[in-house]
Structure formats: C-alpha cells, structure tokens
Design a protein that fits this description.
Layout: H1 2-26, H2 70-93, H3 97-119, H4 122-144, H5 156-179, H6 183-205, H7 213-238, H8 240-245, H9 253-289, E1 305-308, E2 311-314
Antiparallel strand pairs: 1-2
Length: 328
C-alpha cells in the first residue's frame, strides 16, 4: 500500500511541476490583479514585475528594495516560530505524528506567506496558499480521528480511506489552483474549512472525557483571536486608501492578521493535543475498569498545561502517550 501511495504521489507531483513551468510563464503580466486602492501599486523592486493575482494593501518596496511587502513578510515568521516550537516540543515528548505534521504545517504556511509577501510572485502565491490547504487537511484528520485508537481494529480501513482522500484532495487542489489562482474561491474554500474545524473542535470539547474547564478558556481565546484577526484582515482591505495616506501611523493590519492567526493556530494545536491525550487516557481507563464499578473518569486529573512566555503547552511530564496509541 505504501509503495502505491509513493508511486502515485511521485507521478502526480511531477505532472503538476511540469505543467506549472508553463503556467508560471503565463502569469508574467496578469490582466486582472485584485488590489484595494483605486490604482494598482506600481513601485518597482528586486522581484518586479509582480506576477501574483492579488496585491495587498501594504505599499510595495517602501522599506526595502528586496522585500515587496516588508511588514506582511516579517510578520509571517511568527507562524514559523510558533510552529517550530510546537514541532520541537512534539519531538521531545514523542507525540503522535499527526501533531508533528500539524505543527510543521503551521511553520510551512508561515514560510510560504513570507515568500509570497516578500516577492508578490505567482510561485510565491502558490507557496502561500497551497500549504494552507495541506495543513487544513491534516487538521481535519486530527479532529475527525480524535477518538480513534489503534486497538479499534475496525477503524483501520476507514483511516486508510481518509488518508487516501486527503492525499487526492490535496493533489487535485494543487493542480486546479495552479492553473488559475481563484482568489475569492480560495478564500471561500479556506473559510469553510476553518469554520468546519472550529465547529468540530467545539463538538469534541462537549464530550464528557474532553470537558475540562481550562480547555474551555483556551477555546474562547482561540475563537476570539480568529475574530480579531478577521477584523484586521477586513479593515485592512476596506480602509486601505485611508490607512496608506497616513504612512507613519499605518498599523499594517494585514501583518497583525498574521500574528493573531499564528497564536490562533497555536492554541488550536494545543487544544487538540490535550483532547487527544484525554482520549488516550479515557480508553486506558475503560480497558482497566470495564468490569468494575470504580469512580467515574475525571478529565481534570488527566491533562495538565504549562505556560512559557504566556503561551500554553500540554505537559507530558506526568502522562506519556504509549507506543500502542501512536498514529499508524
């Protein structure tokens, strides 16, 4: 099965890359670039001419001739930093591969975003938008397989199907999106994936073995950060001309969208890690007490959080996930 996946991936990926070479050349002078001021920014820099299908509100090549949108580019590294920290902690604590992939996804989204805003090229736009879709596919796998453990043998085939579907969906979207960067369709697509993920995460929290008050507060902040980020993202577009007229007082709201979004994603991964740990502990409790009438499972006693620089992380020092419950 793994050899089939490898062959399929290599074949489709090579086909996309070969096609992308011609597609990139066709975007040298896009005829319909989405922008947020009456006239498209014509500032010239190292990466000119711009080949992306969207030009954000920040004025191009103002701070540096080598970075198109300086603040949007720099703020993207917040995702790289938080994703990298989660990945390193995950390796140290030997968390499941799904969470390592989710953390890496956040870091890659940040790197792609920095590349896009730094260059405003079509290739940069693909490096920004496609990892968002890939990371959301991983995120949905995390959420929809939250309560599944390896010892549940009847779920193995379903997990294989979900991986296969995610792989095909990611490759199909890569090909279609590389042919034509549909800005509104992409934004609507991502909005549905994000909203669906939030609804599923709230549903999971309501399950008794996930119902921990400390997670409730994290979820409230998690949603609040997304709302705040969305407000920044929206105002940056609708007040673009007014904000750019006040060059020294421009708050660079799209950059704040990146920072707030990075913290939002961080909390989402931490919440899902905590819920997954509770799932594992609950399954272990059921296996150990299936024939006895001991006291009920108390979720509060089985998950602990630690804080570094105000950011929460799951504390695995007292509870270690066993090899038997790792991802397949």
């Amino acid at each position: 099965m793994s050899s089939i996946f490898r062959l399929l991936f290599c074949t489709v990926f090579c086909y996309i890359v070969i096609d992308a070479r011609t597609i990139i050349h066709s975007h040298d002078h896009p005829s319909n670039v989405k922008h947020f001021e009456p006239e498209l920014d014509t500032n010239v820099g190292y990466w000119s001419p711009s080949t992306s299908s969207i030009d954000w509100c920040e004025r191009n090549y103002v701070v540096s001739d080598y970075i198109a949108e300086f603040w949007n580019c720099i703020s993207s590294f917040s995702m790289c930093i938080l994703g990298g920290i989660l990945f390193i902690r995950g390796l140290y604590n030997q968390v499941e591969r799904r969470f390592l992939l989710s953390s890496l996804g956040l870091a890659f989204v940040g790197a792609g975003s920095a590349y896009f805003h730094g260059t405003l090229t079509h290739l940069g736009q693909m490096a920004d938008e496609l990892p968002m879709v890939y990371s959301m596919i991983v995120w949905w796998f995390v959420l929809f397989r939250m309560n599944d453990c390896k010892q549940m043998k009847n779920i193995i085939f379903a997990i294989d199907l979900s991986v296969l579907f995610g792989l095909f969906y990611g490759l199909l979207w890569s090909y279609v999106h590389s042919l034509q960067t549909f800005v509104l369709i992409f934004q609507g697509h991502m909005s549905l994936m994000v909203i669906g993920g939030i609804i599923k995460l709230i549903y999971l929290y309501q399950q008794p073995h996930h119902h921990v008050y400390k997670l409730k507060y994290l979820l409230i902040i998690y949603i609040g950060l997304l709302v705040s980020a969305f407000v920044c993202w929206t105002l940056d577009q609708h007040l673009c001309e007014e904000l750019n007229k006040r060059s020294r007082l421009n708050p660079q709201l799209h950059a704040w969208w990146h920072v707030l979004g990075a913290f939002h994603c961080h909390l989402g991964i931490v919440c899902s890690e905590a819920m997954r740990l509770l799932t594992i502990k609950y399954k272990q409790y059921q296996d150990e007490n299936h024939s006895s009438s001991k006291q009920s499972f108390k979720a509060e006693d089985h998950v602990h959080l630690v804080y570094y620089l105000g950011l929460p992380y799951v504390d695995y020092s007292k509870d270690t996930q066993t090899i038997e419950t790792k991802d397949q």
